[in-house]
Structures are given as structure tokens and as C-alpha cells.
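Dear H.,

Thanks for agreeing to be a second pair of eyes. The structure we're designing against is below in C-alpha cell form, covering all 1488 positions.
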């Protein structure tokens, strides 16, 4: 930290940039060490110099390193120096490498000893060295050898020595006869360095090399030295012990396998390969290492042959050597010499390279020796039983065949490799039997899953082998074909299993082979071959056909009318195939595939012949499971597959067959992952057909008992699941299960079902009385059997189990019995009894006579289970059973269940625990439907009202008990209750009873200050109950409540004794609905409270989020729309009834209540309206428009008007629906009956308002539908019958709105509209007395004038008259009145929109009429003219100047005549005259 501060202060003082750079450089050098110091010669740091792109700089840097080492300069890290030198050893420039070697020598001399890291770094030099390109490598190689031999590391590190020798081998090889060349110097250096004495591979090479030099002519030095080197390496290699030799072979192979970059490396690879191949053929090789060595050499040759490429034919070259007389080594040396010569001259050496490889392969094939243990006379060469040496030898044969066939198939070297295939067969497969044994291995080894030979057989090689076999078979004589077609030959069986290959070409090739021997009638396989050859096309097309064909062929053995000789031959052929499977020497993978092609061949004979094989494999699986091959395991699986319905009779006649099957059932170990255990496979064979086909009931009982025993002792869940599946699948007589459940051992092994039934009859009395037997029961076994029975469907005569099940149930209820899972056993027994009941009566109805005696069904025991047990699960099962039995024996069940129901209602509902809650649920779920069903079935004459009466009683029990039920249990209990009864029918009853409870109990039992809180809590609870049901059910519920409220009396009468008696008598005859809220037992206040509470709840429910969500999520929108419309109708009807009650009770103390109830009813109506989406709202309104009640129709139109006024955005479909309402609204407008005339007038007014809104919203884009509207409105305005002012006013506004929208389409209707409108305006007395009526008329006139000003000329004079009078009326009402504002707007519109040619004549005529009559109104007319003149254009004013001048002269004359007489002080007169003067001035100004 102090140094940092000092440096920082010094840096602040420096101002010059140059000095600053020097300071930074100083800091860098001082802190980084010597490797960052600058060198004088390179003007850069040592580190950068070592990596400089110029080689000269790198040389100087390495020399500087050497100086540092020699002078021991400080500031340099030894590791850095060492790494830098070793890095430069890899340099591309040889001078740099030489300098690095010199520096390394100095480093090793002064600082450290050579280690393994340095040694292996030096070896990399030999890998890169190429004397043919640059002879400077000579000095580098010599220096490197000197460094390595100078130290003792080679003696200490054998690995380094081995690597060094292998790297030096290419430099030992001589490729030139010039003894003064760098190559010779390096070779001499190696020989004289002492390295050869350190390693056994080069032992004796210095002496041998000197002898070659002395004894050989200079022109033959290359061949002589290489020949001697090969001989020496071979001798040294074979003289070593096997382990050392194999280790050296690995090293040599690693060199030979490397991609050769230099000529030396290429030549070394061939020489090493030659040494290795000849070492395999050496007679001095002991058998122990011969095959391992041969395998290694074969892998080397295999890779080289596969990589072989060339474009030149070698036939001409090889023809110069007589292969029969010339040794392989002589040809090899001669070819090698030519190879070296061409390589040195830079010519192509592909031909020589190929020849060398071919020669090596021939030498290898000839020199390969089979082990003594290789089989000679056996039928099969079975890889599963061969010794390790025999496996290696067979692997070599297969590998050689594969690589030779690969190269013999195509290419320019195909002939040479075909010759080598012949050589392979000639040397190693001389006999015909051995040839086809070998081919049989090739044909079948692809099916071997264990791969003992470690050889990969693909489909291509298998197909080639098959076609080769076909050629060989075709070329054989008939006698040899007979020999190959015998059962003792592997040929036929090997070919047959290939007919099921998944590769179609393999099947085709196998059929070709079989066709060659199919004509041998003496063969035992002739019937099979003859049949299959005829089905060649089917077999080639379908791999499964061969098994189907053989199944069909051998199925003829069971046909009686077949010729006995033919059946005998078929039987012998089948015996031969099965004999092959039985053979110990036959490979298991072959036997496995034989079983696969015989998959469809099933009978007792086949199974009996396979029993020895099954026994042998089971013994091996039990004694040595690790030694069981996967193919053997699959073979065992296939043999187990022969246990089926076709052969199951053998289990009854052959004890060994049954014992082996049971033994398989007990082998639970999974030997191979992914392969099911033998136990699972055997269990899979116990199918429904298999079990049903067993002729002996004793065997069935035995197998059934074994299944139960396995399940009892089973620890594997998969096994237990399989046994359960097997048990479900098979069809069993209930008597057999009864035997297994019986506690007495002596009745377990009955021979037949008949005997079991006889013994059951003997214990009939004991079963009915449920008397415990003396023998003990294996409850664990019974439990497992009962568990299986829970889901058992295929059970014959299930009623036979009922006595024994009730007997077990009676034992479970014994006080002395103590079991941990006693309740579970009870549940299982109850479940089994339930299943039996459901089988006997699937629809829950009574069962027929003779099926089950009612006395055997002990309902008392089931009831006792409920009373004694404390487990809800037991109660659940018991209640389920009672529910099922209720349909079968309703009287007996209901007689015993009523006490339970009473107990539940009185005690369990008050408890707050899961047990009690579960009991309540199950009681509701099972008992209540039984009670209702019994009530419905009790008498044909009874109606549904009786059913509802039962439901009311049940619901009332729950409602009465509800205050004592914990709060969080109330909702689930009631929901379960109503769901069971049916929400559509009984939800409204529950709500009514809840309202009645609140009115009579809750409201009177709490303080007045807490009533609101209690009501709020109860309402939330009621809403939560309702929202557990669908929207449809809730709507139905609301309708039923409204209907019920409508039927209730309006008020309660006084309680005098006589009236009370009559009401009591009336109550007895009333329906069940009225009895829900018994008016006689409640006060009038409670009745009103009940009504108001019901309506208030409906309003809150409709507004609740939960209910709205239900409506939104409802999938049946159309059905819901119908219920919503009906609800609207019910609400409107109820509102009508309440409104009537309001009128009736206007002067009574209850008037306030009725008004509040009416208000709340309207609230409900608004909630229903707001609930409806537009798509539903419109059809609903349309439906309400057809309702016979005028009040309903009126309210529907009000709802429509509200919707139209509130909403601005409409979809196209919605607009179309709304427009369909126009005709119906017009029909309301045109309806004018004497009945309910006042109400009709209100409806017509409302309909006109609806039409006006519809036109305003949609008329702009939809003109046509509103033309009839205009006609209807005009009809009302011009009606001869005097209409009510409100109706006429609405018609005026509607006509005006339609005219504004229709525009040009309204022109034809002006002759009817305008006279009627002007007629209305003329009746001033009526207009003045009704301001709204007056405003409607003025507004209508204003809109017509604004819309069609140019088409009003026939009516303009009348319009002006009416406007002048209206202006005066408006002035009297005040300047801010609505009338005055509209009249002013009308005057402006007339003055500004009409053309002068139309307006001026009308003004002139109007002036003449009013100047004598209404002189006081001239000012209004002059104002119109003034505004008109102001907006005129100059040309228009000029055109009408004379007319205007004449008019103004008359106006001025009028002023002169009347100025001092009548209107001297009149403001209006002044305004008129002033206006005239002003207008005159304007005209004159424009004219100038």
C-alpha cells in the first residue's frame, strides 16, 4: 500500500507524456520479472521474442535463454525457462529447434535432471522428422538421440524407452543405397547409440546392420538391410515370453495403424505389418499366445483392407509371381523393394501397397492354426459351448469371411479376394460338412443375443452367406444333398428359421437355399420344405407367414380324413424339429427361433416333447441363474407359451407337466432386465380359454390355490398385479372360491364343483345361523381373496358366495376376535356382497324367484356393522350395500334402516369430525333415495306430491338441525342432500324452509341490533348453497319461489275462532307447497317478512359474482335463454301482482311494505335484465313482446329502451336481431282496443319511443325497415279518432326522427305528414295547455325543416304562419324556455336553408295576410327576412333586388301609415320598422 502511494505521488509530478510512458514501462518491468525485459537485438521482450513471427528473432531469444542458463541470471523462473525451451522444440523452423536443443542441453547440464516430461517432448521430434524433405533433420535427430542416451532416464522409464524405440523404427529402415546420406547417418547413429541394447526388440541390430553393410553389394543394401531387419524383429518378437510379446505387438500395431505422412513411416508400417503377420505363422509360437496374437494382427489387417483404395489392376503384377511355388516372404521382399524405389522417386505406389496387403492376408490365412479343442464331428458349431480358444478361432474365421466377402463383392480387386475366400475354405474348411457348419453359423449368428464370439453380424453379410450357400448347395451332387438334408445336419433347420427374418431379402435367399434341397424326398423335412417352397411369395411378403403356414400344415395332423402316410410324415417332420430343440448341442438361439416358427403349432404332443427342455432350463435357472443365457431365457418363455387351451389337457394326465408349470409359477427372479420373470410369463398363460379348457376341476382348484398362495407370499407388486389381472380374466365358479374361503382344510381339495356344492348343502343350516366353526380362519389369505373378488366380473353363480361371506362377517363381529385390520376385512366382505347384489340385479330392481333366498341375505348383520363400527369407510360400504339391497328387498332394508337414519339426525349431525361428516354424506347418498323410491313404489295411485311430501320431511329435518351443525359442515351437507334429491325439484323447497326458519327463529332470537348481521350471514350462506348447482337449476328455483309467493295470501286475516277453524280445514286440503310456510301458524308480520326476504334474496343472488360466473360458464346457452325468458315473465307477473296489491293497500298501514316490496321486485327485474347478454336479451325481449299481459309487454319495451340508451356499440348480428323487433313494435302502436285503453295508450307511447330509439341507433345504415315506422307514426298523427296527447306527441317525435334518418325516402310521405303536423300546430289551445305536447310538435317541425327544407314549398306559407304564432308564445314563456330556444332555431333554419325563390314569395304573401290581422307579429317575419338576406350571395341579391325593393317600399309605407296611431310605443313595431330600414340599407349597399 505504501509503494502504491509513493508511485501515485510521483505520477502526479510527471507532466511530459514521454516520461509518463517510461515510468509505466519501468513499473511493468519491475513488477513482471525477467521474461518481460527488452532484448537489445530484437527491441522487444523475451517472451514476445520467443513467439515472434520471424525465426531469426526466435533463434536469438532461445540463445538468450541459453545465456541466462549458463550465467545463472536472476529474475527468471526455472519453469518458464523449461516450458519456453520445450515449446520451441515444436517450432517449424529447424534452426530454432536446434537452438532449443542446445539450450535444453545447457539446462540439463546446469539446472536440472532430465525427467519424463522432457523425454516425451523430445519424442515429438521423431514424429515430425522427415529426412526426405530436409537433411537438416539429421543434426537434430542425432542431437536428440545423444540427449536421450546421455541420461539414465531410458533405463529408469521403460515406457519412455518403448515409445522411443517405436519412434526410431522408421529411422532404422534403409530406403537408399547411398551410405553417405543423412538417412544412413541417422541409422548408424541409432545403431551406435546403445539404444538397441536397452530394448529387446532391437537386440542384435548393430551387429546385424554392420554385417549387412559388409556382406551386401551397395546396390542391394536397401533390400538386404530391410530383409535382415524383418528377420531380426521377427526373431526378437517371437523369442519373448507371451505377455511381453503381446505388449510389444500392441506397440508395433499402434505404429502400423497411424496415418503415414512421411515415406519412412509408410515403409515402416509395411515392414511392421509383415513382421506381425509372419509372427503369427511362426512355428515357435505356443498355442497360448497364437490366437491372441492372431486376433490383434487380424484387426490391423481388417482396418487396412477396409481402407483399401486403388485404381490399378494388380493382376499383371501378380502374374509375374507363381503363387503356388513362390513363398509369401519372397514376394513380399520383392514387392517392398519396388515399393521403396517408387516411393523415393515420387511415383504412385497404390499397386505395390495393395499387393503387399494381399500377400499379408494370404500369409495370415495360411499361417492361422485352429486350436486342439475346436470341434470336429459335432452337428453344430455352438458358440455357447465352445472353449475360449475355439471362440477366438471361429471369430477369426467369421471376421476373415466378412472382410474378404466385402472386398470380393465389387471393385477391381474382387478376383484376388475371391481367390482368398477359396483359400480360406481350402485351408480351414476342407470337408463339406465343416463348410456348411460354418455357413450355418453365418446364417444364424445374427439371432444370438449373447454374442459369445464378440462378432457383429449384419443383415448384408447374412444375405451374402445365404446366397453363397445357395450356390454351393446347387453345385452339390444328389448324394451330398441327401447328406446335407438329414436331421443330423444343421443346414435345414438353419435355413428354416431364416424364413421368419424381418429382412425380406434374407427370407428370399433362405428360400432359394431350401429350394435346392426341397426335392430330396428321403429327407425327414421334405413335407415342410415342399409346402414352404410353394408359399414362397407369401413368405417373402410377410415374415409372420412361416409360423402361420406351419400352424396350418401341422394342423392337418388333427384332421381325421387325411391319409395316414401323409400324417405320419408330418408327424416325423415335427418330431425332427422338436428333436432339434431338445438337442443339448443345438444353440439356444437356434432353438429359440425354431420355437418361434412353431408358434402356431399347439397340441399336447408338442408340449410333451418340450417338457425335458423345460425341465433342464428350469433346473439351470434355479441352480445357476447367472449362467442362464438370454436366448435360453427366451426359449423358456416360448416353451411356456405352449401351455394354452390346446394343450392344457396334458396337465390333467401328465403330473410332470403340472409340476413344471407350478415350478415356473414359483420362479419370481427377474434374470434379465426387461424380460419378465418366468413367474409372470406362466401367469400370463392362465387365460380365460386356458382355465375353461381344463377338464379336471381338481386341477382348476389346484391352480387357483397356487395363485392364492403366491399372492399370500408375494413381495413383488408386479407379480401381485399380474395375479390380480389373471384372476379378473378367468371365469370361475363361485363354489371354487367358497372352498378357498372355507376354514375347514378337508373341503379345500374337492374333486369337482358338484362335490363342493354337496358339502356346502351339508353346512347350509350352519351358514344361515352364522354359527362360528371350530377351525380357525387364515384371515390374511381370506383378505387377499376378498380383495381379488372386489372387481371380479366373470363369476358364475355368485349367489353361492353369500352364505360364506355372511358367515365371515359374523365371525368379524364376534367380540372375542382381535385383528389389526378387522375393519378392512369387514369392508371387503361388504364390498363383495355389494358386487354380488349388482350382478344379480344390475338395474337395482327386484330379482326373480329362485335366484336368491331373501332369508340368506342377513340385513341385520349389515346394520350391526354400522352400529358397532366407528370407521366411516365401513359405514360407507354398509350403506352402499343397503342401497343396492333396497332394490332387491326394499321392505326388509327399509325396516332396518330407519333406526339408523333417526340416529344420524339426532346425534351425528352435531359432531364436527370427518367421520361424522362422512356418515352423514353416505346416509344421504344411500338411504334417502331408497326412502323416496319406496314411497314412489308404495302405491300406483299416489302422485308426485307424496314424493315431495317425503322430501319436505327430510329437508325439514336437516334444516331444523342446521343451527347445531358446525358452520363449515353446513354447506356440504345441504348440497349433498339436495343433489341426492334433485336440485331442479327440491332446491326451492330448501330455500323456502330456510327463509321460514330465518323469519320464525333467527329474526326473533337475536337482538335488534344484530339482525342485519345475521341476515347478511344467512344470505351469504343461502347464495353459496344455490351456487353449488347449475345456472339452469337456480333459475328454475327462482321461478318456483316466485310462483309460490304468488299463491300465498296477500294478508293474514284476523284470528277469530270461527275463521281460524275454517282456515285449519282449508289448510288440510292445501298442497304441499302451501304447507312450507303455514300461514295459520305465523303472524301477518312474519308473512310479510317472509315475502320481502324471499324477493330480497333473489335480487342478491342474481347480482352475486358466483351466480354470474355460473351463467357465463353455462354450455347450453339456448336452453338457458328459455329459462331466462320464463324468469323474466314470472318476475313481471309478480310485479303486476305486487303493483295491484300496492293499489289495494294504499290506504292501509301496510302500504309502505307493499311499496318497498314493489321496489325490491323491480330491483329483481333489473338484475335479470342486467344478467342477460345481448345475444340472449334480444330474443327474450322479443318473446316477452308476445306476452298476453300488457304490463309485461310494456316492461319489456322499457327494458329494451334502457338497453338502447345505455349501449353505443353493437355487433352486426345483434343489429339484425333488434331490427326484427320493428314489426312487433309497429303492431303495438297500431293496437287500439277498448279493453284496458289507458294501459294500451301507455304501451303505444312506449312502443313509439322504442321505434324512435331504434331508428336513431340503426336507421342511418338500415333505411328500409323504418319506412313502415314513418307510416305508422303518420297514421297516429293524422288519425280521425282523437288520440291521447302523449301518444300523439310520441308519434310526432318518432316521425321527426325517422324523417331525419330516411331523408330522401321520407319525401313521398310529406303530403301526409305535413298537413297532419300543421293541423296539430293550429290547435293552440291544446298545445298551450300541454307543454310537452307543444314541444313535441315544434321539435317535429324543426327536424322536418332541417332535413327536407327544399321540399316544403307547398307548406311554407302555413309554416311561416305557425312559426310567427309560436314565436310569440315562446316569448311569453321566457327567453330561456325550451320552446323559445326551439322556435329561434326553427326561424334560423327557415331563413338560412330555403332558397330566395321559395322563401321570398312566401314571406310576401304572409306579410299581406298578417299586416292587417296580426300587425304585432310583423317583427318575427322581418327577422326571418333579415337573416335570409344576410346569408344571400351577391348574385342572388342582385337577381331579387327589384322584388326586395318593392317589398321594402310597402313596408315603409306601412310604417308611415301606422307609426303614430297604434304602435307608437310598441317595441315590436320599432323592431319591425328598424328591421325594414336595415334590410333596405343592406339591399342598396349590395346593389351599388
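And this is the sequence the design step returned. I haven't edited it by hand at all.
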Amino acid at each position: 500500500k505504501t509503494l502504491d502511494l509513493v508511485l501515485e505521488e510521483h505520477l502526479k509530478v510527471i507532466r511530459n507524456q514521454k516520461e509518463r510512458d517510461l515510468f509505466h514501462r519501468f513499473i511493468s518491468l519491475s513488477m513482471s520479472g525477467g521474461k518481460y525485459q527488452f532484448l537489445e537485438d530484437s527491441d522487444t521482450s523475451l517472451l514476445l521474442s520467443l513467439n515472434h513471427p520471424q525465426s531469426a528473432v526466435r533463434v536469438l531469444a532461445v540463445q538468450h535463454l541459453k545465456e541466462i542458463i549458463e550465467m545463472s541470471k536472476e529474475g527468471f523462473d526455472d519453469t518458464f525457462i523449461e516450458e519456453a525451451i520445450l515449446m520451441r522444440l515444436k517450432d517449424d523452423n529447424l534452426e530454432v529447434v536446434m537452438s532449443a536443443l542446445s539450450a535444453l542441453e545447457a539446462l540439463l547440464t546446469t539446472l536440472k535432471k532430465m525427467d519424463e516430461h522432457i523425454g516425451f517432448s523430445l519424442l515429438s521430434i521423431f514424429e515430425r522428422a522427415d529426412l526426405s524433405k530436409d537433411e537438416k533433420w539429421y543434426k537434430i535427430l542425432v542431437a536428440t538421440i545423444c540427449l536421450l542416451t546421455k541420461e539414465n532416464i531410458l533405463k529408469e522409464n521403460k515406457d519412455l524407452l518403448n515409445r522411443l524405440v517405436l519412434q526410431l523404427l522408421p529411422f532404422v529402415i534403409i530406403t537408399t543405397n547411398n551410405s553417405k546420406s543423412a538417412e544412413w547417418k541417422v541409422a548408424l547413429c541409432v545403431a551406435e547409440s546403445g539404444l538397441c541394447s536397452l530394448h529387446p526388440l532391437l537386440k542384435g541390430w548393430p551387429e546385424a546392420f554392420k554385417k549387412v553393410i559388409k556382406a551386401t553389394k551397395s546396390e542391394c543394401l536397401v533390400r538386404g538391410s530391410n530383409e535382415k531387419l524383418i528377420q531380426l524383429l521377427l526373431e526378437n518378437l517371437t523369442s519373448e515370453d507371451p505377455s511381453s510379446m503381446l505388449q510389444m505387438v500392441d506397440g508395433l500395431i499402434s505404429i502400423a495403424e497411424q496415418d503415414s505422412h512421411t515415406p519412412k513411416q509408410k515403409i515402416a508400417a509395411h515392414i511392421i505389418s509383415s513382421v506381425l503377420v509372419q509372427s503369427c505363422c511362426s512355428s515357435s509360437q505356443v498355442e497360448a499366445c497364437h490366437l491372441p496374437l492372431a486376433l490383434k494382427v487380424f484387426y490391423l489387417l481388417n482396418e487396412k483392407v477396409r481402407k483399401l483404395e486403388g485404381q490399378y489392376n494388380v493382376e499383371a503384377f501378380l502374374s509375374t509371381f507363381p503363387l503356388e511355388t513362390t513363398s509369401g516372404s519372397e514376394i513380399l521382399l520383392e514387392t517392398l523393394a519396388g515399393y521403396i524405389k517408387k516411393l523415393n522417386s515420387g511415383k504412385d505406389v497404390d499397386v505395390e501397397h495393395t499387393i503387399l496387403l494381399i500377400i499379408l492376408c494370404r500369409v495370415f490365412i495360411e499361417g492361422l492354426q485352429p486350436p486342439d479343442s475346436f470341434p470336429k464331428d459335432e452337428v453344430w458349431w455352438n458358440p455357447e459351448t465352445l472353449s475360449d480358444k475355439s471362440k477366438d478361432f471361429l471369430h477369426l474365421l467369421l471376421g476373415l469371411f466378412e472382410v474378404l466377402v466385402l472386398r470380393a463383392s465389387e471393385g477391381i480387386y474382387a478376383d484376388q479376394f475371391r481367390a482368398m475366400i477359396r483359400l480360406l475354405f481350402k485351408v480351414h474348411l476342407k470337408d463339406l460338412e465343416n463348410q456348411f457348419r460354418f455357413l450355418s453359423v453365418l446364417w444364424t449368428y445374427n439371432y444370438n443375443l449373447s454374442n459369445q464370439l464378440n462378432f457383429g453380424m449384419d443383415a448384408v453379410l447374412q444375405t451374402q452367406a445365404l446366397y453363397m450357400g445357395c450356390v454351393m448347395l446347387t453345385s452339390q451332387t444328389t448324394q451330398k444333398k441327401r447328406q446335407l438334408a438329414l436331421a443330423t445336419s444343421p443346414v435345414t433347420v438353419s435355413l428354416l428359421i431364416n424364413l421368419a427374418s424381418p429382412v425380406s431379402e434374407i427370407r428370399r435367399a433362405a428360400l432359394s437355399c431350401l429350394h435346392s434341397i426341397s426335392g430330396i424326398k428321403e429327407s425327414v423335412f421334405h413335407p415342410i420344405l415342399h409346402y414352404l417352397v410353394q408359399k414362397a411369395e407369401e413368405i417373402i411378403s410377410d415374415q409372420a407367414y412361416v409360423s402361420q403356414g406351419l400352424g396350418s400344415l401341422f394342423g392337418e395332423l388333427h384332421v381325421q380324413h387325411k391319409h395316414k402316410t401323409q400324417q405320419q410324415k408330418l408327424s416325423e417332420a415335427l418330431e425332427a424339429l422338436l428333436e432339434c430343440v431338445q438337442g443339448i448341442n443345438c444353440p439356444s438361439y437356434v432353438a429359440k427361433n425354431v420355437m418361434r416358427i412353431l408358434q402356431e403349432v399347439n397340441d399336447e404332443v408338442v408340449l410333451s416333447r418340450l417338457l425335458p427342455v423345460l425341465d433342464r432350463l428350469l433346473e439351470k435357472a434355479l441352480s445357476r441363474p447367472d449362467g442362464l443365457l438370454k436366448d435360453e431365457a427366451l426359449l423358456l418363455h416360448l416353451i411356456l407359451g405352449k401351455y394354452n387351451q390346446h394343450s392344457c389337457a396334458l396337465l390333467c394326465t401328465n403330473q410332470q407337466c403340472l409340476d413344471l408349470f407350478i415350478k415356473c409359477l414359483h420362479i419370481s427372479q427377474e434374470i434379465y432386465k426387461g424380460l419378465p420373470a418366468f413367474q409372470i410369463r406362466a401367469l400370463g398363460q392362465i387365460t380365460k380359454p386356458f382355465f375353461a379348457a381344463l377338464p379336471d376341476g381338481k386341477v382348476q382348484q389346484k391352480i387357483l390355490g397356487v395363485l392364492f398362495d403366491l399372492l399370500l407370499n408375494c413381495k413383488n407388486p408386479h407379480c401381485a398385479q399380474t395375479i390380480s389381472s389373471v384372476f379378473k380374466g378367468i371365469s370361475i365358479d363361485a363354489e371354487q372360491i367358497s372352498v378357498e374361503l372355507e376354514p375347514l382344510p378337508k373341503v379345500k381339495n374337492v374333486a369337482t364343483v358338484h362335490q363342493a356344492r354337496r358339502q356346502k348343502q351339508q353346512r347350509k343350516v350352519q351358514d344361515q345361523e352364522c354359527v362360528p366353526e371350530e377351525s380357525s380362519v387364515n384371515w390374511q389369505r381370506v383378505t387377499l381373496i376378498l380383495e381379488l373378488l372386489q372387481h371380479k366380473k366373470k363369476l358364475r353363480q355368485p349367489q353361492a358366495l353369500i352364505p360364506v361371506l355372511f358367515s365371515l362377517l359374523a365371525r368379524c363381529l364376534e367380540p372375542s376376535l382381535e385383528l389389526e385390520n378387522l375393519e378392512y376385512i369387514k369392508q371387503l366382505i361388504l364390498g363383495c356382497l355389494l358386487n354380488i347384489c349388482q350382478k344379480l340385479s344390475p338395474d337395482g330392481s327386484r330379482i326373480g324367484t329362485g335366484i336368491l333366498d331373501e332369508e340368506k341375505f342377513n340385513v341385520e348383520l349389515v346394520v350391526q356393522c354400522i352400529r358397532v363400527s366407528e370407521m366411516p369407510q365401513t359405514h360407507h360400504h354398509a350403506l352402499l350395500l343397503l342401497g343396492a339391497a333396497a332394490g332387491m328387498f326394499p321392505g326388509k332394508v327399509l325396516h332396518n334402516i330407519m333406526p339408523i337414519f333417526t340416529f344420524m339426525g339426532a346425534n351425528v349431525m352435531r359432531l364436527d369430525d370427518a367421520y361424522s361428516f362422512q356418515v352423514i354424506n353416505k346416509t344421504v347418498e344411500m338411504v334417502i333415495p331408497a326412502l323416496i323410491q319406496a314411497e314412489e313404489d308404495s302405491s300406483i295411485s299416489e302422485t308426485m306430491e307424496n314424493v315431495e311430501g317425503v322430501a319436505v320431511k327430510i329437508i325439514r329435518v336437516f334444516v331444523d338441525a342446521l343451527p347445531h351443525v358446525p358452520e363449515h359442515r353446513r354447506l356440504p351437507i345441504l348440497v349433498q342432500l339436495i343433489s341426492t334429491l334433485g336440485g331442479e325439484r327440491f332446491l326451492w323447497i330448501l330455500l323456502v324452509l330456510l327463509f321460514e326458519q330465518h323469519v320464525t327463529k333467527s329474526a326473533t332470537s337475536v337482538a335488534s341490533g344484530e339482525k342485519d348481521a345475521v341476515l347478511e350471514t344467512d344470505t351469504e350462506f343461502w347464495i353459496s348453497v344455490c351456487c353449488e348447482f347449475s345456472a339452469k337449476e337456480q333459475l328454475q328455483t327462482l321461478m318456483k319461489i316466485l310462483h309460490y309467493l304468488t299463491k300465498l295470501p296477500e294478508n293474514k286475516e284476523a284470528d277469530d275462532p270461527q275463521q281460524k277453524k275454517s282456515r285449519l280445514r282449508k289448510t288440510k286440503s292445501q298442497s304441499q307447497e302451501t304447507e312450507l310456510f303455514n300461514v295459520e301458524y305465523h303472524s301477518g308480520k312474519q308473512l310479510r317478512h317472509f315475502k320481502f326476504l324471499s324477493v330480497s334474496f333473489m335480487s342478491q343472488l342474481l347480482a352475486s359474482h358466483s351466480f354470474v360466473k355460473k351463467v357465463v360458464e353455462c354450455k347450453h346457452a339456448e336452453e338457458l335463454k328459455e329459462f331466462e325468458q320464463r324468469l323474466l315473465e314470472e318476475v313481471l307477473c309478480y310485479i303486476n301482482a305486487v303493483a295491484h296489491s300496492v293499489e289495494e293497500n294504499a290506504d292501509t298501514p301496510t302500504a309502505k311494505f307493499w311499496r318497498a316490496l314493489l321496489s325490491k321486485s323491480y330491483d329483481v327485474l333489473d338484475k335479470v335484465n342486467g344478467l342477460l347478454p345481448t345475444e340472449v336479451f334480444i330474443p327474450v325481449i322479443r318473446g316477452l313482446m308476445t306476452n298476453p299481459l300488457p304490463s309485461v309487454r310494456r316492461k319489456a319495451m322499457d327494458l329494451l329502451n334502457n338497453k338502447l340508451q345505455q349501449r353505443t356499440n353493437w355487433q352486426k348480428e345483434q343489429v339484425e336481431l333488434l331490427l326484427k323487433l320493428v314489426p312487433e313494435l309497429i303492431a303495438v302502436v297500431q293496437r287500439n282496443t277498448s279493453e284496458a285503453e289507458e294501459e294500451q295508450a301507455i304501451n303505444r307511447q312506449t312502443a313509439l319511443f322504442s321505434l324512435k330509439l331504434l331508428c336513431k341507433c340503426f336507421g342511418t345504415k338500415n333505411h328500409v325497415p323504418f319506412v313502415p315506422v314513418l307510416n305508422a307514426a303518420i297514421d297516429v298523427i293524422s288519425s280521425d279518432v282523437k288520440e291521447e296527447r302523449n301518444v300523439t306527441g310520441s308519434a310526432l317525435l318518432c316521425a321527426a326522427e325517422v324523417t331525419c334518418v330516411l331523408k330522401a325516402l321520407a319525401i313521398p310521405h310529406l303530403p301526409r305528414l305535413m298537413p297532419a303536423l300543421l293541423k296539430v300546430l293550429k290547435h293552440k289551445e291544446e298545445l298551450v295547455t300541454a307543454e310537452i305536447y307543444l314541444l313535441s310538435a315544434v321539435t317535429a317541425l324543426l327536424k322536418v325543416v332541417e332535413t327536407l327544407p327544399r321540399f316544403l314549398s307547398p307548406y311554407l306559407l302555413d309554416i311561416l304562419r305557425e312559426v310567427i304564432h309560436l314565436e310569440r308564445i315562446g316569448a311569453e314563456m321566457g327567453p330561456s324556455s325550451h320552446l323559445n330556444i326551439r322556435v329561434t332555431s326553427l326561424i334560423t333554419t327557415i331563413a338560412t336553408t330555403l332558397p330566395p325563390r321559395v322563401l321570398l314569395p312566401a314571406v310576401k304573401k304572409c306579410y299581406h295576410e298578417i299586416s292587417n290581422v296580426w300587425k304585432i307579429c310583423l317583427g318575427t317575419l322581418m327577422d326571418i327576412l333579415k337573416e335570409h338576406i344576410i346569408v344571400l350571395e351577391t348574385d342572388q341579391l342582385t337577381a331579387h333586388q327589384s322584388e326586395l325593393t318593392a317589398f321594402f317600399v310597402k313596408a315603409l309605407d306601412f310604417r308611415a301609415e301606422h307609426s303614430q296611431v297604434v304602435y307608437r310605443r310598441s317595441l315590436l313595431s320599432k323592431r319591425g320598422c328598424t328591421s325594414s330600414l336595415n334590410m333596405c340599407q343592406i339591399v342598396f349597399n349590395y346593389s351599388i
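Two observations from my side: The chain has a mean pLDDT of 81. The longest strand covers residues 732-733.

Warmly,
E.
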